[in-house]
Design brief:
- The protein has 258 residues and is α+β, with helices and mostly antiparallel strands.
- It is 52% helix and 14% strand.
- The protein contains twelve helices and seven strands.
- A three-stranded antiparallel β-sheet has the order 2-5-6, with helices on one face. It has a two-stranded antiparallel sheet with strand order 1-7. Strands 3-4 form a two-stranded antiparallel ribbon.
- It is elongated and about 75 Å long.
- The model is unreliable at 173-179 (pLDDT under 50).
Length: 258
Amino acid sequence: MQLKELQEQFSQFLYSQSPDGASQEWIENCLSKSSIRETQSRLKVYRNNLMMTLVPILKEIYPVTQKILTPEAFVLLAKEFIYLRPSKVCDLNCYGAGFVEHLHGKTELATHPYLSDLMRLELAWNETSQLRPRDLLTLDRLLQEFHTHGPSFTFSLNRSAQILVTGHEVLKGWQTIRNSTGQSEPFFASGKQRLMIWHDAEGRKVHQLENELWPFISGVMAGHTIQQMSESLVFVQNPGRLQECINLSVLRGWLSYK
């Protein structure tokens, strides 16, 4: 048996929730001269180590989701996801993004229609801590660039800033209210909103993109120049608002220069 085939068989065994007879036969014939029971017992160490590594990562990314589902239910769903979507990259910071889609639409979670939005918020919140700001645009640098390029100057969104479009006011889910029985429960209101999530020197932050601020940010992501944005209907009607959006975005560290 070649090394590549051996590695593939071993990975298949690790990521199988219930290893079949073929896997058991492979273990007996290829890996050990010990009894099959001893071999299975030894390989359980690898399977347990897999879960002990990946389950805590999902817990760290989705702490509020874990609280809502209860730790026990979260672990069961996490293990199910890990077996179906094994980690394929060395950087474990990249793991867990597919967990949102894995839970979306599950009938047993129908009582939590806001869960997907909440999980996307938690995922974006986690990712901003992994992507540190760089090449931030300052007001001084903005004046320099504008003096050099004029209204043809373009921005780019800082890599530690992310946009999340939600179907619920998920921010309220971080708080709790008392229901009719006096018990505390999460509160979520309906309605689409756009959130900017970013990381600065003080930590991770979140802000709702309202009114003209969203057209400005969407223009930045589309690569529009200052001239193009100033000619859009929303800023033609209120020219001073464009400057306010630029200043606010620069001061909050949302923008970088190309």
